[in-house]
Each structure stands twice: as structure tokens, then as C-alpha cells.
Amino acid sequence: MKLISLKKNLNIKINKDIIYYLNPDFVYLPGSNIQVSQDEQVLKGEKVCSNYASPISGIAFGIKKCLFNKKVQNSLVIENDFRELEDSKEHHYNKITIKNILKCLEENKDKDLLAKFKSQTTFSNIVITTIDDEPYVYNNIFILKENIAELLELIDELGVIYKSNHNYLVVKNIDTAIITDCLNAIGTYPSINLTLVNDEYLLGNPEFILEKLQIKDKTLYLTTSELLKLNNYLKGKDTSTILLTISGDAIKESKILRIKKYTLLKDILSKYFTITVSKYKVIANGLMQGFEITDEFNFVIDESISSINIMASVDIPKSNCINCGKCIEICPKGVNPLTKKNINKCINCGLCSYICPGYVNLKAKLQGDKDV
Ligand code: SF4
Ligand code: SF4
Q1: CATH fold of 98-234, please?
Q2: Which ligand has an atom closest to residue 337 CA?
Q3: Are the beta carbons of 183 and 194 closer than 8 angstroms?
Q4: pLDDT tens, position by position, 84-111
Q5: Helix or strand or coil: residue 111?
Q6: pTM score of the predicted model
Q7: Candidates 316, 320, 327: which one to mutate for ligand 1, based on the most atoms within 8 Å of Cβ?
Q8: Pocket around ligand 1 at a 6 A CB cut-off
Q9: Where are the alpha helices (DSSP H) in 274-332?
């Protein structure tokens, strides 16, 4: 299939340094099954709410309705005591073996990663990708930048234990700063092949990148964000934080932040961002595949959220199909967005809406029909 480069606003630039916001005054844990009482002490790592572990230590402050992803639900509010007092659970360093990888993934109930590692006992190829398939989102490449030595070492070890013939580290050729870092560090690991690809949409999707690299069968495919999770599980490291991109043309400067899980978006915005326009939209998880946040003041950043785009509202002319057929032509999965033929193959990529000269929001219509 033909991949395309999305048009981008070159004025949206990301600050090269990660901001560490690890001391919010409050966090908001989702779930109804609350296991602590008001004013009770909560430890960092303690499971106090529907199996969600607190990312900070502090005091159970109360209950508040918040927005998690697209769902409004009650949350337990924990007031930070800034002491990071931990649950007594000891942190183990696990030797990197297949048995320990499966054990750690099971213990951490990471079903998606477990399915990938359980699928084979050996892999012919390991593909680690830094690509985020969304304009103005940079999580995977910054995770590599932040953890380059540890991640290269882990790729090398995975290659040995899974007996892979080829280990690829895929980077977009526009990420020049990290390419230099990689080239400097990768010299120690001749088993890792730094693979540069063009900045084309959908190369962050396993199907399309593997086709592009002509890699078939028995392949372990991971993003750097998944690789870091595995690294942290194996080494008993802190998993209370997540990386978040906040970017867009309605803010003064776009930034990457490492934050505590379950921080309120409003708290991050008021501390680090200046919104420069009066009318804007807040989008979670990407302009192509994400969704508009309906209540930005009560929106909580949980593990399902990787980016926030704050974009100036533009007046879109009334949508009107002119029967040009472009939406059918561009669809990478052979879906006809007008007749809904092959709708089950839709991957929610948004290309049909992106290309439409009549401003028809086809993606939203398809999502409605698929009841996503
Ligand atoms: S791309 Fe838009 S205008 Fe063209 S056929 Fe599809 S819906 Fe109609
Ligand atoms: S959102 Fe679905 S229908 Fe539209 S281009 Fe992507 S795969 Fe095709």
C-alpha cells in the first residue's frame, strides 16, 4: 500500500528537555471498590481502589467524580504527603530469562505484553519501534532518549534468549538528535540494527511497518514504551509514572512530561502551559485516532492516555459530500466509508476524514456504527 506523509504545522515544536512533574498535590484513582476510609494513610504502591495502586503516599482525602478516558466515574482523591512512603513490598531484580519475563508479566497482570511474549518460545526477528503514529506526539522516541543505555542492553539480551537472527531498532529519519545518540551508544551492540524510516503515517502500526521492512513470521514487535515497562517489571523499578506529550497550536510551547499516574490534566496545564487563544479543543491520544475531551477540568491522566493536543478551534464549513471518492481510495484496509462495506476491517486510522474535501467526519460516523 502507498503510505502518506501527513501535513504538519511547522510552528509546533517540542521542547527537547523532559519536564518531571512528580509531586502533584493530589492524585485521583479510578474505581468504586475503595478500601480505605477518609483521612487514612495510603502508601505508595498500595492497592486501595479496584486494584489500582497509589502512585504517591498520602492521605485519603475524599471521593470526586472525574473523567477517565471517555468515562465519568468516581475516584478516590489522595492528598500527597510528599514522603513517597512505600508499601512494604520488596523490589526484586529478576535475571533476564524467558521464565522470569513471563512470571513478571503475569504478576503485573499485563495481558497485552504477556500475549506477545507467550506467542513463541523463539523469535526470528525482534522489532523495537520508536514511532508514534500521530502528528506532534513524541512519547516513544523520548522514552528511548531517556533510557537509551538500559533499553539497548535489554534488546541485546532479548535477542540472545529468544535466539533472534535480527534485532531492529526503528527510528524516523527526522529524529536527528536521537539518531546521533543511538549511533554513539549502539556501537557496543553489534546485534542491534538501527533502521531509519521516512516520516509516513501508519508506520507505527505493526502490520504496516513489518510490511515496509519486509519482515515476516515469528517476530516480536514492541514499542519503546512497552520495552520500558518490561524493563521496569524485571528490575522491580518504579512504575508510578508515565510519559505524556502535550502539544498543539493553542499553547505557547509543546512539551514532554513525566508525571505521576492519575494526575489531573488541569493541574498540569495550570503549572506548565499557557493557552494562547480563547477557543480551542483538547484532544487525547492523537489528532488522527484520538478523541475530544469533553471535560478538560476533570480529566485524569491514566495509563490509557499518551498525549494531549490543544488546538485552536477553526470554523469548519458545513460538511457536504461531493462524491469525489477520495475516502475510498485512501483507505488502507479496503473499507468503503460511504457504504460501510468491510467496516469490520476499519482500524480507526482517520485517513478518510483527513482527506475529505467536503469536511465529512467519516471516522466519527464509522465509530458510531461500530459502537466504539
Ligand atoms: S472524500 Fe468526502 S467528499 Fe469525497 S466521497 Fe468521501 S465523503 Fe464524499
Ligand atoms: S478510519 Fe477506517 S475507513 Fe477510514 S481510512 Fe481508516 S481504516 Fe479506512
Answers
A1: Rossmann fold (3.40.50)
A2: 2
A3: yes
A4: 999 766 667 889 999 999 999 999 999 9
A5: helix
A6: 0.94
A7: 327
A8: 321-327, 355-358, 360, 362
A9: 326-330
